[in-house]
Design goal:
about 190 residues; 5 helices; 9 strands
């Protein structure tokens, strides 16, 4: 299950609107309520009028999965320039990325990315093959997967949206502005 909530602790009755998988949810807070969060995210604590808000300030890990080395290199520069991600790992093969996730499933202590940017057209294992296998894996947390493609075919976008693990379909190139918008929508302040 996805847990993209801001972690909120309150000592009085109030109502909060939070974002969950791009859908606003409204919840009442009575006494003490803590929203679940991804376990590996870095937090800052802010105190405002007798309540605490723990805000996710950075993504710990982001994966770029694209068979084109110059594209991965460019996107890793964009991500680093954004200063919103602690670590970027690029895979030139979706098969290698799947092997990484299989190792996580087998209990090898590897970090799980908060975000995966996935290209569609790759040799050997394309995005659709990757997603078919990935959605069968049992992982401790579910990363956000964004299709990052040059495709303008509406069928590709419809197909991407048919997968439960896909958060969004966007066109290349990845930009700092998009990362800022994504961070805001996911309540990473």
């Amino acid at each position: 299950m996805y847990h993209y909530f801001t972690n909120i602790v309150s000592t009085f009755n109030t109502t909060f609107v939070v974002n969950y998988r791009n859908q606003p949810l409204q919840t009442s807070v009575n006494s003490l309520l803590i929203f679940y969060i991804l376990p590996s995210i870095y937090f800052t604590r802010i105190t405002i009028n007798n309540f605490f808000i723990f805000i996710m300030s950075q993504f710990n890990l982001l994966f770029l999965i694209d068979d084109d080395h110059p594209t991965n290199y460019y996107h890793s520069i964009v991500v680093k320039k954004s200063k919103m991600v602690k670590k970027v790992i690029s895979f030139l093969s979706a098969k290698k990325a799947l092997n990484y996730f299989r190792e996580v499933q087998e209990g090898i202590n590897l970090a799980i990315p908060e975000i995966i940017f996935l290209d569609i057209n790759m040799p050997e294992v394309n995005a659709w093959d990757f997603l078919d296998i990935f959605e069968q894996l049992v992982l401790p947390t579910d990363p956000i997967i964004v299709i990052l493609s040059t495709s303008i075919n509406p069928k590709d976008e419809r197909k991407a949206n048919s997968y439960k693990s896909i958060y969004e379909f966007i066109n290349k190139p990845l930009t700092v502005e998009y990362l800022k918008q994504l961070k805001t929508r996911l309540n990473y302040s």
